[in-house]
Design brief:
four-stranded parallel beta sheet; three-stranded mixed beta sheet; 2-enoyl-CoA Hydratase, Chain A, domain 1; alpha/beta; 7 strands
Length: 256
């Protein structure tokens, strides 16, 4: 993320870029893992106020209430689509977060598969402070990430900041790092490890996790069984199993 402002506020241009980038990488057979980071002092400090002001001006020019509703719906859907593309991307997506992660930044972060942050990071479901409910994924995804529903409600009802250590203890992030450089190094090592494994296995694993999350265990078992009817016949499985059995060279896997 790299906006002209140091806070990396979520602008219309940035949202479109996120969607285009993720959908492109999802189709790129050379890509096996994705790391999302940001330049500047913050990961994402909130919504871009210039874009919001222009949107309100444009909205005021629409007289009919139903048509204004359609304009609002289109804008919300535009942002939701970008973050859902991250969640549904077949490749694992890692977020490395520093500074502020607020408002739509929370929507972006919670759509990722893994999250790491630095000690200076704070998280905030900021929308309630500006008179609205978060509508780009935080309310849907955060309760699935943090184990305590009581904590989720406290954060979403009050808009209070969640500091890095509490974020780690709650399960929102996997690890906390002293510096952004340490975090970058670890994230890329993790991405490299993922990329060294079978893309068939990794992508089927993500697909099964997403499918099974809100379904009974048996439905998830049926789903992964159907997937593995083909996957267990792939050259990836044969190569990896042979390497493990013979303790020979590490298996290498071709792109999908």
């Amino acid at each position: 993320l790299d906006c002209e402002n140091g806070g990396n506020t979520m602008s219309d241009r940035l949202i479109a870029s996120i969607h285009d980038c993720i959908t492109t990488l999802a189709r790129d057979n050379e890509c096996r893992a994705i790391v999302i980071s940001s330049l500047g002092k913050d990961f994402c400090s909130g919504v871009n106020l210039d874009d919001l002001g222009q949107f309100n001006t444009d909205l005021a020019s629409v007289e009919d209430i139903s048509r204004r509703g359609r304009v609002i719906e289109d804008r919300i859907t535009h942002i939701q689509r970008a973050f859902t593309a991250i969640e549904m991307c077949p490749k694992p997506v890692i977020a490395i977060i520093h500074g502020a992660c607020a408002g739509p930044g929370m929507g972006l972060a919670t759509a990722c598969d893994m999250r790491y942050c630095s000690t200076d990071t704070w998280f905030q479901v900021k929308e309630v402070e500006i008179g609205m409910a978060a509508d780009v994924g935080t309310l849907q995804r955060l309760p699935k990430i943090i184990g305590s529903q009581s904590l989720v409600r406290e954060l979403c009802f009050t808009g209070r900041k969640l500091e890095s250590e509490e974020a780690f203890k709650s399960g929102l992030v996997n690890r906390v790092f002293g510096t952004k450089e340490e975090m970058l190094k670890f994230a890329f090592e993790t991405a490299t490890k993922i990329a060294s494994l079978s893309p068939v296995a990794v992508q089927n694993t993500k697909k099964s996790i997403i499918y099974s999350f809100d379904r009974p265990a048996q439905e998830g078992l049926d789903h992964i069984r159907e997937i593995n009817l083909l996957a267990l016949q792939s050259e990836d499985f044969i190569s990896a199993a042979t390497a493990a059995a013979t303790k020979g060279e590490v298996a290498e896997f071709s792109k999908l």
